[in-house]
Amino acid sequence: MAGLWKEDYRIGVDIIDEQHRQLFNKIEHLLEIAKSGSWEKNRQECMETIDFLVKYTIIHFETEEKFQREKGYVSFDDHVKIHREFTNTVLVYKDLLNNNFSAKTLKSFIGTLLAWLVNHVCVCDKKIIKNIPIRPMESFADTESFIKSVGNKLLTEMYDIPIRSTKRCIYKGDVEGAVIIRTIAEGKGRHLFLYGISDKLAECLYHKISGMSLPHLDFMDEIEQSALMEIGNIITTYAMGSIEESSTTGIQFKNSLHVHEYNETEHNITNSVILEIATDYGKMEILYSPLK
User: How far apart, in whole angstroms, are the C-alpha atoms of residue 46 and residue 281?
Assistant: First the structure.
């Protein structure tokens, strides 16, 4: 397996880059144990590695925040809130594994951590150097332009995947995709997002996160599933900043991943707008609907 750390992840601050490299190396070690099937035999080593990640993540965030204060970073407060929320996520997983150590929970933790860290380093942290806001507030004339912005943020800015064309559709019972990520975000209100992703695009996104190949969609384990669902959480967090025009911290997510097909039956979303986005790796469909 190729190393998870890539030189492209460097932001140009030596101490921060070295800490990032250490975090990726520890995640890679957990990943090797989980993939080997020897997770139960190496339980103590796994928990020691997770303890290290908890402590080192806190140290790393303190280092980043000190650097941001010194530079007068424009989105310092937002960045700190993102750090705090992710620290809580890591602590929740640590408690889950302490109470009920299992391959499923371990793999879910690895996938979530990996997807979050790659996005945070490549998108959020690189903005510090250029003093670019994390989430510039935007307003949109209609739902179509809003969804187009969401797709552009995910594909072009986060993962450098060019958008070739877009087409507006009306929801008629299903969102097409080899993988469908369903995310309900609850802040001031409740909002439903469906992301339908072609098989090649899902493979591309997963490879960009991990450097690894995505297995056949029918045989994904918790690592692949949780990594893809975390992508849904990340882009939905961005979207919520424009929907509610307030801080995106404190948002609660409920998500699920479906393979080949999904029909929304819990909520009536008739006449919702779907944006079909064409890329070199196939199509992505995005549906957004406010919920009562």
Answer: 36
E-assigned strands of 27-178?
A: 163-170
Q: Which residues contact 102 (CB under 8 A, 6 or more apart)?
A: none
Residues with Cβ within 8 Å of residue 289, at least 6 apart in sequence: 171, 191, 192, 267, 269, 272
Query: Predicted confidence band at 139 (pLDDT cuts at 50, 70, 90)?
Result: low
Starting at the earlier edge strand, list the strands of the sheet with 273-279. Answer: 163-170, 273-279, 282-291, 190-197, 179-186, 252-259
The amino acid present at 282, given as its one-letter code, is: G
Domain of residue 204 covers 143-291
Are 79 and 184 within one domain?
Answer: no
Whether 67 and 195 share a structural domain: no
* CA Rg value for the chain: 19
**Residue 275 exposed, middle or buried by CB count within 10 Å (0-12, 13-18, 19+):** buried
Q: State pTM to two decimals.
A: 0.85
What is the per-residue pLDDT for 199? Answer: 96
Asked whether 286 and 147 are in contact (CB, 8 A), the reply is yes
- Are the C-beta atoms of residues 259 and 163 closer than 8 Å to each other? no
Question: pLDDT for 183-204, tens place per residue?
Answer: 999 878 889 999 999 999 999 9
- Tokens found for residue 260: 């080949």
Check pLDDT > 70 for residue 73.
yes
End-to-end CA distance of the chain: 46
And the tokens for 18? 């070295």
Domain count, the chain: 2
Give the pLDDT score at 249.
Answer: 56
